[in-house]
Amino acid sequence: MFLPSFLLKILAKKNFKKCSLDSNFTLSNQQKVFKQIVLNGSRSSFAKDFGISKSMSYNKFINRVPLLSYEDFKKYINRISLGEKNILTSGTPSYFAITSGTTSGTKYIPLTKEMMNMQTRAIKELLLLYAYQKNYYNIVGAGMMFIQGSPSLRRFNNMPYGKLSGIAAHHVPFYLKKNRFPSMETNQITPWGEKIKLIAKETINKDMHIIGGIPPWVITYFKELLSLARCERVKDVFPNLQVYIHGGTSFESYKKNFFKLCGSVDTLEVYPASEGFFAYQDVIEDKALKLLTNHGVFYEFVSLDDYNAGLEQNRVPVEGVDLNIDYVMIVTTIAGLWSYNTGDTVRFVSKNPYKILFSGRASQFCSTFGEHVIEKEVLSSLEEAVLCFGGVVVEFTVAPYISDSTSCHQWFVEFSVTPNSISSFRKKLCETMRRQNPYYKDLVDSGVIKTLELKPVKSGGFAAYMKSIGKFGGQNKCPHLTNNRSIADFLIKNYV
After folding, report:
1. CATH class of 365-494
2. Hey, what CATH topology would domain 1-362 get?
3. Global confidence as pTM
4. Of 15, 87, 379, 383, which sees the most CB atoms within 10 A?
């Protein structure tokens, strides 16, 4: 055994014990994080505007600071960009991590050195947990490939900014840089199609053990790699490939296509965001994600029902959540966000330890007819239909359809392998939706809307749509649910 592997084994065991211990102190960890955030931010301009003191209790905090959206932070972000200090918290951020918003355009999320360290710490913990569980200690010398945003940084006035994954590329530990791909040069290439081709050429002869990235773009890379190598499976190209780390969108609808192209590997889900690293899959056999409660984020939750009813004040900390309820996640962070509405919805499936499943976006739903359909429901329906009638899904979206004679949901699904029976597949989708969502069932039963329509999409349809709006590649994801027809109309005109 080489010395690095021996040291890694010791580190992995210590990390496992520490992470296990942390799970027993979730509530006290959150109290400590809250106190630290308030103390660090008590002299900021934001704290003065909202009456936040360094010893403020949580009860006083929720009375002083309401739920806030990005628009509420814009004036502070602008001041930070101009070089002002102590605006949202003490000091200034190192970067702005950018993310796209539906109402605000580009969002500039403050990313401090401390928060960047928390992001790095989370992924290090995950890899060590994996090593411990699999008794696999060749990570230091292993080839790692993460398909991510460009590491090129721009400036918003005086502040550098970029996508989180691109910023993370600048913070790779020195001992991993030699075997980490793609190279910085390749990673900076802008045209996504050209970048994928060069990544495939750069990695085809490497001994890859770990691959990461959002599912649709990793699948795109796999196809390019297999075409170049003239192989049937990625495992034929990378026989030592151990694990795929994914996040950013649900893996379920891509899983069958992924394994068909790749072959058998372990998978681990992560939940990083520009606002913080929220959770990761700490147990290989358990797809639920451990909520990270000592990584610089204080959490609050509003049930999706209350949120949709305008009862945003009914927010609770971690100890107030119940199981199997969809919650909108609110975060206060060491980087200077306060009661910030992430727009993400999660569902707790365990409270000992606290574990969650990502269930969608609060803004990504379909309720044109009062049906309140959420992303988790359409994903579950699609998964059941694939299980029963086969098919491999590349991408999909659901949109409402209204005409003088009829109204319904239209499902646009791009298959790389067609189901055994499109008709049976559609019926299964409808059956599962009716079972999951009582509002949808009542609307169909009462004749207000028809049963759903399934519209198979030609190969490349969703990629073409993303190109048409300038969001092809990187970490961009096509919405799975909309209340408008922008995606639907594009697909019908060109690709259905």
Report:
1. alpha beta
2. Rossmann fold (3.40.50)
3. 0.79
4. 87
